[in-house]
From TrEMBL:
<dbReference type="InterPro" id="IPR005821">
    <property type="entry name" value="Ion_trans_dom"/>
</dbReference>
<dbReference type="GO" id="GO:0005216">
    <property type="term" value="F:monoatomic ion channel activity"/>
</dbReference>
<dbReference type="Pfam" id="PF00520">
    <property type="entry name" value="Ion_trans"/>
</dbReference>
<protein>
    <recommendedName>
        <fullName>Ion transport domain-containing protein</fullName>
    </recommendedName>
</protein>
<dbReference type="GO" id="GO:1902495">
    <property type="term" value="C:transmembrane transporter complex"/>
</dbReference>
<feature type="domain" description="Ion transport">
    <location>
        <begin position="44"/>
        <end position="173"/>
    </location>
</feature>
<dbReference type="InterPro" id="IPR052076">
    <property type="entry name" value="TRP_cation_channel"/>
</dbReference>
<feature type="transmembrane region" description="Helical">
    <location>
        <begin position="138"/>
        <end position="164"/>
    </location>
</feature>
<feature type="transmembrane region" description="Helical">
    <location>
        <begin position="63"/>
        <end position="86"/>
    </location>
</feature>
<keyword id="KW-1133">Transmembrane helix</keyword>
<keyword id="KW-0813">Transport</keyword>
<feature type="transmembrane region" description="Helical">
    <location>
        <begin position="25"/>
        <end position="42"/>
    </location>
</feature>
<keyword id="KW-0472">Membrane</keyword>
<keyword id="KW-0812">Transmembrane</keyword>
<keyword id="KW-0407">Ion channel</keyword>
<keyword id="KW-0406">Ion transport</keyword>
<keyword id="KW-0040">ANK repeat</keyword>
Length: 223
């Protein structure tokens, strides 16, 4: 975050074009903005009333990343398959565009009519050429249905089930997690204090004397 911010503001501090392309500067500036607000959101974990929700979000996000990494090979396979079969479509015109479209389809936005149905029924061709948008309609239909069943339904329901399980376990240990976060915060603050100040306030042990200076005893002494 700090490095991205520094890269973004350096041209303004020096009044010079340092990177040759202004898009480089604004790329890091946009990244710094996102990281800044993400860090601000995560810092809300220190607030007791909000820590549960932030913790749930982090745990669900970690679970999602682990599952997606496991099934990344499957998603890449579908992206390559649809790129080969439907590369005349704008949404599958390259491997990277196809991969992005697969992630969108993962959420349920399959665009069945625009991608397959209309082009197959109308035998639509690429303007100015004799190439069909869907040259292998039967195979495309089979793989499209297979993708919907195996990814849009099965994988998404798996993610939802894991997320619900994570939330249930977090709610059971929310108090403990909150205390751990507060202890880590206190420890990080303590490490930032100067050494001489820590030496002045350091005590090898503390003595707690029960039933002394309590409200009840003070009230009794007044009588």
């Amino acid at each position: 975050m700090y490095l991205s911010t520094l890269i973004f503001i350096l041209p303004y501090l020096t009044n010079q074009e340092l990177y040759g392309d202004v898009r480089v500067q604004w790329t890091f500036g946009t990244l710094a903005l996102l990281l800044c607000y993400s860090n601000w959101c995560l810092s809300l974990r220190r607030i007791t009333s909000l820590s549960l929700y932030i913790t749930m979000y982090i745990e669900v996000l970690q679970t999602f990343v682990r599952v997606i990494l496991i099934f990344a090979v499957l998603l890449l396979g579908y992206a390559l398959v649809f790129y080969v079969l439907l590369k005349e479509e704008d949404t599958f015109s390259s491997v990277w565009v196809s991969m992005a479209k697969i992630f969108v389809m993962l959420l349920g936005e399959v665009d069945y009519t625009d991608i397959l149905s209309d082009n197959v029924v109308n035998s639509a061709k690429v303007p100015g050429t004799s190439n069909l948008y869907v040259p292998l309609p039967v195979l495309s239909y089979i793989l499209f249905i297979l993708f919907v069943l195996s990814v849009s339904i099965v994988l998404m329901n798996l993610l939802v089930g894991l997320a619900v399980g994570d939330i249930d376990s977090i709610q059971k240990t929310a108090t403990l997690l909150n205390l751990i976060d507060q202890a880590l915060l206190v420890d990080s603050i303590r490490k930032r204090y100067p050494t001489w100040m820590l030496r002045l306030t350091y005590k090898e042990h503390l003595e707690f004397k029960l039933n002394q200076n309590t409200t009840v005893k003070r009230y009794g002494s007044l009588k």
